[in-house]
Amino acid sequence: MKPAEATAVVPQVGPERTQQQPVPPKPPLDLLAELTNTPPPPPTPLRTLARRIKIWTPLVILLVIVFAIVQAVRPLPKPELTLTAKDSYTFEGGKVQLPWPGEGQGWMDVDDVGTVDSFGKQTPVPIGSVAKSMTAYIVLKDHPLKAGEEGPAITVDATAEKEGGYDADGESTLNTVKAGDKLTEKQALSAIMIPSANNIARLLARWDAGSEAAFIKKMNDTAKALGMTDTTYTDASGLKETTVSTAEDQVKLGNELVKIKALTDITRLPEWTDPSGQKWRNYNTLVPYNHAIGLKTGSTTKAGGNLLFAATEEVGGETVTLVGAVLGQHKAPIIDTVNAVSKTAMLAAQESMTASKILKKGDVVGYVDDSMGHHTPVVVTEDVPAVGWAGLTVKLSFAPADDLPHSAKAGTQVGTLTVGDGDSGAVKVPVALQKDLTEPGFTDKLTRIG
Fold first, then answer.
1. Which residue of 23, 298, 383, 416 has the smallest Cβ count within 10 Å?
2. Which residues pair with 245 in a beta bridge?
3. 424 band by pLDDT with thresholds 50, 70 and 90
4. Which of 17-31, 58-72, 117-131 has the highest mean pLDDT?
5. Domain total for the chain?
6. Does residue 320 belong to any structural domain of this protein?
C-alpha cells in the first residue's frame, strides 16, 4: 500500500460531529428498545387512552377525597320552623255592632286582639281632661313606678298653690296644697287621674320637663310615636280647646296605659284621699263595677262629656282587656251621659267576647325544615284557644326557638304558636317535635348543593 493511500481522509457522512457536541439523548422507549432489543409499540388510540387514564385517575381520586372532606365538615344550614296549619281563624257570626249613642264618636278595642266596633266620623275634637292620660303616660315613662311604690317626692311650687284657687272659676284643681308641700309621684298622678286637678297636671309638666312648653312638645312627639295622627296637644291639662284628638287615637294611648299596673291601680279606685285627708271621688263612675279599671274623664262646654275607659273580661280561661273611648256627649249632665253610654257599650262588648278551641293538643301544625330536604313534624303541646267575637279573624304565627337544634328528641320544644297580633293579650302555646329530629347523614352532606 502506498503511504499516501494509508493516510487518506475517510469521507464524513451526515453532520459533522466533534467531541464538544454530545449526542442528543434518545427517547426512553427507544432507549429501552435499544437495550432490550425490543422496539417500542406503535402508538394507537387505545394505548393513548390507557396512558391518559393512568395519569389522571390518581388526580381525580384525590379531588374526590378533598371534595368529600369539605362537604362533610361544612357547617350545616340553619333549620327553619314552618307553619302548615291555617294562618288565620275566623269566628262564626256576623260583625259585632255595639249599642253606641246617637252623637259624637267612639271606638272599642280588645287590647292586642283587634277593634271590636266604632261609630262616628273620627275627626279631631276637643277632649278636655282626657288629655291628662298622656300627661300621666309621659311621667310614668320618664319616672317609672312599680305597683305599690310611691316614687320620688315632688315639691309643690307657688304656681301650683295659686292655680289651686282656680276652682272658684270652675276649674278642677287640688285646692288643698300649699307651696313647699311634698307630693309623691303616685299622689300627684292620683290627683290628675281622679279629681282631675289641672294645677297638678301643670306641676308635673314642669317637674318632668322643666317647663310646660317643653312637656307639650313631649306630648306631641309621643302621640306621633304611638301613631296618634289626628291628635294635637297644646296644654298638659286639656283645659284648652285647641287640645284635640279622636276616639281612635285615644284608644291607641289607652292600649298602652292598661299595661302600666301602677297607673291602673290608681284609676280603678272609686275615690282618693289626698295628703290633707280630703276625699275626692272618681268622675269615672264605671269603676269599680263590671271589672272596669278606669281610665280618664274629661269635660268642658266646648268638648262635652268624654271618657277613655277600660275593663277586663275572663273568656275561656284567658283574661282580655277592653279599651274604649266615647267623645262629644253634650246631653246634660254631660259627665253622667258619657258614663252611661260608655257603660252600655262596655257591657255589650264584654258580652260579645267568646272563646273557641281551634287546635287540639297533639295536632300537627308545622315542621322543622333542615334545609337539606328533610321535614320533621311539630305539634302543639296543649289545646289552643282563640279569644274574640263574631266575625273576627285572628292570625296564627310561629316564633322559632332562639337556636333551633340540628338534632333533638321527640317532645323537645322548638318554638311557640301565637294566636293574635299582640303580646299581652295574645294566646301563646309551645310547639314540640312529634318525633326525633336527626342530623343529616354523610350521604346528605355529600350530595348537598349550595
1. 23
2. 125
3. very low
4. 117-131
5. 2
6. no
